[in-house]
Amino acid sequence: MAKEKIALGMSGGVDSSVAAYLLKEQGYEVIGITMMLLNDEKTLKAIEDAKKICQELGIKHLILDLKEEFKEIVINNFIDAYKAGKTPNPCIVCNKYFKFGLFYEKIKELGITKIATGHYASIENGKLKMSKSKDKDQSYFLYGINKDIIKNIVFPLEEYDNKEKVREIATKLNLSTKEKKDSQEICFVKDNNYSAFLKDNIKEKINSGNICLKDGTILGKHNGIINYTIGQRKGLCISYSEPLYVVEINKEENKIIVSTNDDLFKDTLIAEDINILVDDINQEVYAKIRSRSIPSKATATIQNNKLIVKFNEKQRAITKGQSVVLYDENNYCLGGGIITEIN
C-alpha cells in the first residue's frame, strides 16, 4: 500500500529537521520543500542545510522559488506599514500568504494535499490550538491561515513542550542541524537593523519632525517616523521632568507624540484584514496583542468586517500594524486581525 504523501516546509533549521524525521516515523512519504524567498547568503545556506537533512533522512527535497512574490507581498508591505507610522509583523503575512498560501497551492499541483511545518502549535478536533510549549507557542503567528485547510495541516512538534527535547532527538540522530541556533531575526532585515533596512529601501526623502506632548508642546525633533514605535522610550533625545514614551505616531502631521507610561494603557482596539477560524466570534475571549504576551480577558464583536476587542483590563502599548489574536478558554485559536485603531 502506497504511503500518504505530505509536504514539509523545510527552513534548514533543527525544528523542521526533526519534524521530517517524526513524519517519516509516522508512516508518511515526506517531501521536504524549501521556499527560496531571498537571494542572499543566508537563504542559500538554509537551502543547503535543508537539502543535506533530506539526504540524511532519505527523503526527497524540492526548492520553490517565490522571491518575486515575497518581495511584493511581504517586504513591500513591511516598508509601506512603517512609512504609515505602523509597526508590522511580517511573519504573520508570510505564514498567511506563503507557508500556508502559495506553498499549499503549489503542492496541490504535485498531487499532495497534506502540509506540515516545524511550528510549535497544535491541530486538535480540526481546530488550531496553542502548543503545549508555552515558551515556544507560535499559534499567534498562524491565525491568518485559511480555515478550510486546517484539516490538512500537521504540526509534528505539537507534543513537545520545550525546544531541548527537540534538540535531543536531533542529537540522538546525529542530524547535521542539531546545534544550529534559532533565528531570532526577520529574514530579510540584516543584523536586525530595521532603521538601516528602511533607509536603504525607501526611495523618497525621510523627513524629520517634531516630538510633542499631547498638548502640542514641542520637546525636540525626531529623525523620521519610521524609527519609532509605540511604547518606545530610548532614543528620544528629549529632556523632561519624568520618563516619557511614544504614545502616538501622527503620519499626517509628521509628529511623534509622547506622554507618561499611564497614557500607554488602553482598553479598546479595532482590527481589520480579519481572519476568523470559528463560526461565531461575538463572545468573551482571551486576546493577545503580541506573541509573548499573556492572553487577557476581553469581549470581541464583528461590525462591518471589523473586529472590535474590548479588554476587561487596560493593555499597555497596543500598536497599530501589529495583530490581535483571539483564543477561547481551552486555548483554541479563534482568529484575529491587524490593529488599525486604538481607544
How are the SSEs ordered, and which strands pair?
Blueprint: E1 5-9, H1 14-25, E2 29-36, H2 41-57, E3 60-65, H3 67-83, H4 90-109, E4 114-116, E5 121-124, E6 127-130, E7 153-154, H5 163-172, H6 194-201, E8 209-212, E9 218-222, E10 245-250, E11 255-259, E12 265-276, E13 283-288, E14 296-303, E15 306-316, E16 323-327, E17 333-342
Parallel strand pairs: 1-2, 1-4, 2-3, 4-7, 8-11
Antiparallel strand pairs: 5-6, 8-9, 10-11, 12-15, 12-17, 13-14, 13-16, 14-15, 16-17
Textual characterization of the structure:
The protein is α/β, with parallel strands linked by helices and 343 residues long. It is built from 6 helices and 17 strands. The protein has helices spanning 14-25, 41-57, 67-83, 90-109, 163-172, 194-201; strands at residues 5-9, 29-36, 60-65, 114-116, 121-124, 127-130, 153-154, 209-212, 218-222, 245-250, 255-259, 265-276, 283-288, 296-303, 306-316, 323-327, 333-342. The protein has a 6-stranded antiparallel barrel. The protein has a 5-stranded parallel β-sheet with strand order 3-2-1-4-7, sandwiched between helices. The protein has a 4-stranded mixed β-sheet with strand order 9-8-11-10, with no helix packed on it. α1 crosses α5 (163-172) and α3 runs antiparallel to α4. The radius of gyration is 22 Å and the shape is globular. It starts with a strand and ends with a strand. 39% of the residues are buried.
